[in-house]
């Protein structure tokens, strides 16, 4: 018997520990999940028991503690296992996998040691969108020029900090409840751990084991804090703390100018803060298409109360105390020579996220993480140190590091479910869109222009670039929001879409026509015939595709093959 131990520790999230008694998992043997994490109400726990209805209950000193829902739609368990599928982590990725698994008739359980929804719902994309909604409204109301152009007169706009914070918290609570209810309605068994560590799995307690034919690791990520930075949660904070909006500092330094840093700069400046970016690379917004990045800097950075230091590392950050400000020591990223010292009211560490995989016990199944990420192949199957696949074990989302986006995790989970139900499926990561919810928004899918040109040089094809401006779009002008650009990167020889990048009003919503085209292998010469309602922002994409110059020879070719990025 091989087992996985789910063990809740004294931190707000739970650990899930693999406890294998032999070097590798054998296909012919059941994979077990040893469930050790209990809430403090269950200290008298004597094991997991199953009722005739399929419910899982904690037996506690003669009383049972129901921790899951049951419905006929959650398939019957296989004869040799309690479940067809167990998912470790109830974030967006785990939730998407669970719902698809039930739809496919799999008996499914999901394990969460913290709260349903994971990072995205509770400490990430959901509450941040609530704050950004407020910042968008504030920007509009504060712009006298914008209001005057629309013929509107508005008195000075203000805000209630606690009210804004409550809006973010209430949204997270609502979405968390929605996710929980959707799983319960379908009968997904939700097994919960908690902050108390209960040592279990000893001889004499066989009821502690829950078995599954297949297991998905979906444990997500946590904010990455570089060495030398002391986080106190008050004046030196991560995104987890910032989303609570416990204060709006007069001057805040943001370390990192990627998605997280950009979005928070939008929030803080709209609420009256001055912002200083600290970026290790030579330019702001690394990772964005350079042309889009330059335009975004001109609109999102330069006119606002934002300054920046590029090409520097923050080697030491000391929280404010005893009347002293936050102190940030900077060094040159290349020479490592001291560069500057900043004194600010607060510092937000937005240097990315790290996989939450410590304590899984993966070494017991001969798996070694790479910078914390669980190694997987293009089908999300876990790979051991010898390069072999670990049977029946998968990893999705931030924990595998392929694409650290909530919707990517969900797509990976759905892909895994397709595989375990007999249909081979490989997710095309180049078709997965991304968005930054600043004002205006930035969105993208596929390759940047430099990436496309590098690929073209290696593979011997030509690259075409087409662009359209929001200034030519009727709906954008009606909204007095003509600032923006859409960019298409493509192959003129066959009409293949390599990448699309948008900066402008509702860019995050517009990108999906392009991402779906890439996913379906739709050629530019075909999508040109799609009809768009007038006047709508979608016509930005319509004009973009129509402006591309595809060679006549491509018109007689069949659909381009779907590219697969692993």
Oligomer: single chain
* Gap between N and C termini: 33 Å
What general outline do the C-alpha atoms trace? globular
Please, what is the CATH homologous superfamily of the largest domain?
FAD/NAD(P)-binding domain
CATH topology of the largest domain: FAD/NAD(P)-binding domain
CATH architecture of the largest domain: 3-Layer(bba) Sandwich
User: Roughly what is the average pLDDT, rounded to an integer?
Assistant: 84
Q: Helix/strand/pairing class, anyone?
A: alpha/beta
Which CATH C-level class of the largest domain is it? Alpha Beta
Taking Cα atoms only, what radius of gyration do you get, to the nearest Å? Answer: 25 Å
Per DSSP, what share of the residues sits in E-state strands of 2 or more residues?
25-35%
Number of domains: 3
Fraction of residues in H or I helices = 25-40%
Spans of at least 5 consecutive residues whose pLDDT stays below 50 are 1-72, 194-207
What's the β-strand tally? 27
Largest sheet: 9 strands, mixed
Count the helices. How many? Answer: 15
EC number: 1.8.1.4
Subunit structure: Homodimer. Part of the plastidial pyruvate dehydrogenase complex (PDC) containing multiple copies of three enzymatic components: pyruvate dehydrogenase (E1), dihydrolipoamide acetyltransferase (E2) and lipoamide dehydrogenase (E3).
GO molecular function, one term: dihydrolipoyl dehydrogenase (NADH) activity
Cofactor: FAD
